[in-house]
């Protein structure tokens, strides 16, 4: 039916982990990992893998997120050997802290 069947595939998975640091039953940190695997030429071997980990932390325990840390790892198989060597992997990290939390400190 479709002519694009063998030309590429994108696979995305989202994994969410809730962490209760002090064990009071209320979540203190939520870690969400989004993994995107892209097979550009459809040969079954991943050409691009991108993993984004977002960590939301409630420092003072008031139920509102205070710090959001986001790390993105992008691996591109530039030379097409099916492996991601060190120079083909890029890591990017950003941290956002709630503004009024900084004022108090
Ligand atoms: Ca807790
Ligand atoms: Ca491929
Ligand atoms: Ca908070
Ligand atoms: Ca490679």
SSE ordering: EEEEEH
The largest pleated sheet is described as: 5 strands, antiparallel
Return Rg in Å: 19 Å
Give the strand line-up of the largest sheet.
1-2-3-4-5
| Mean pLDDT over the full residue set | 90
- List bound small molecules: calcium ion
| Oligomeric grouping of the chains | single chain
As a percent range, the share of helical residues equals under 10%
Distance between the amino and carboxyl termini? 62 Å
Low-confidence residue ranges: none
| Tally of individual helices | 1
Determine the strand fraction and express it as a percent band.
Answer: over 45%
Structural shape = elongated
Give me the count of strands: 5
Characteristics:
binds calcium ion; mainly beta; 5 strands; 105 residues; 6% helix; 5-stranded antiparallel sheet; 1 helix
Task: Please give a structural write-up.
This protein has 105 residues and is mainly beta. It has one helix and five strands, in the order βββββα. It has one helix spanning 99-104, and strands at residues 9-19, 29-39, 48-57, 67-76, 89-97. Strands 1-2-3-4-5 form a five-stranded antiparallel β-sheet. The longest helix is centred in the last third of the chain and has 6 residues, at 99-104. The protein starts with 8 loop residues before the first strand and ends with a helix. Bound molecules: calcium ion (CA) (4 copies).
């Amino acid at each position: 039916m479709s002519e694009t069947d063998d030309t590429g595939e994108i696979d995305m998975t989202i994994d969410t982990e809730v962490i209760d640091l002090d064990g009071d039953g209320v979540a203190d940190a939520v870690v969400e990992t989004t993994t995107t695997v892209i097979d550009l030429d459809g040969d079954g071997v991943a050409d691009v893998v991108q993993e984004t980990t977002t960590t939301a932390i409630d420092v003072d325990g008031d139920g509102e997120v205070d710090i959001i840390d986001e790390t993105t790892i992008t691996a591109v198989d530039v030379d097409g050997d099916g492996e991601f060597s060190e120079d083909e992997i890029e890591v990017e990290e950003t941290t956002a802290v709630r503004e009024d939390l900084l004022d108090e400190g």
